Amino acid sequence: MATNIFILGFLLFISASIVLASDQSPLQDFCVADEASAVLVNGAACKDPTKVQAEDFFTSGLQLRGNVSNAVGSLVTLVNVARIPGLNTLGISLARIDYAPRGLNPPHFHPRATEIFTVIEGTIEAGFITSNPENRLIKKVLNKGDVFVFPMGLIHFQRNLGNNYAVAKSALSSQNPGIVTIAKAVFGSNPDIPSDILAKAFQLDLNTVNSLQTKF
């Protein structure tokens, strides 16, 4: 009997842990982020609901083309809780991604969100890499109207295969999905990761590592 109770309790604990592994569900109609609050919580403190306005749930400008004149030829415009305070506790966000011809959204991952990606214009190659030890690359060429999913926490990328401008939009399962761009994080950390560590990890010589660190 005691063993059965222990097993039941353990299963309930595991179930609760799984439920809490994503953004928490709201317990009221909304919890608009109070940018003036000094309270630190996992998310943002709630604004007085009597002072909430339509503007707290609104933003504009996603119809505008992003400036892709950079080294990788892409720009991500993220609409998260920092841009729409009303997203607080709702567990979603949105992004527009613009690509120059042959532009790349370099390998990165979102620590707190799964992403569903839709091509609006152009032909885009999209892919993600499974975790260790397989590290299998799963990729597909997408055309206008095609949809692809990047699982939470896995490294993924997109690149424009065409000679024309391309654009896509993504929905993410967190009000604040976070982004870790691999090259920037590894070679552009502040302070720098010691170059001998990177040289050994990536099997590169020190001069190459130092050169990469200066680029980021």
UniProtKB/TrEMBL annotation:
Residues spanning the signal sequence: 1-21
Keywords associated with the record: Apoplast, Disulfide bond, Glycoprotein, Manganese, Metal-binding, Secreted, Signal
Positions with a binding annotation for Mn(2+): H108, H110, E115, H156
Principal place of residence: secreted
One Gene Ontology term of the molecular function aspect: manganese ion binding
Disulfide bridge partners, by residue number: C31-C46
Localization (cell): Secreted, Extracellular space, Apoplast
SUPFAM superfamilies, per the entry: RmlC-like cupins
Any one cellular-component term (Gene Ontology): apoplast
Span of domain Cupin type-1: 60-210
UniProt: oxalate binding residues: N105, H110, E115
Record-stated family: Belongs to the germin family.
Protein's job: May play a role in plant defense. Probably has no oxalate oxidase activity even if the active site is conserved.
Protein name as catalogued: Germin-like protein
Protein source organism: Erythroxylum novogranatense
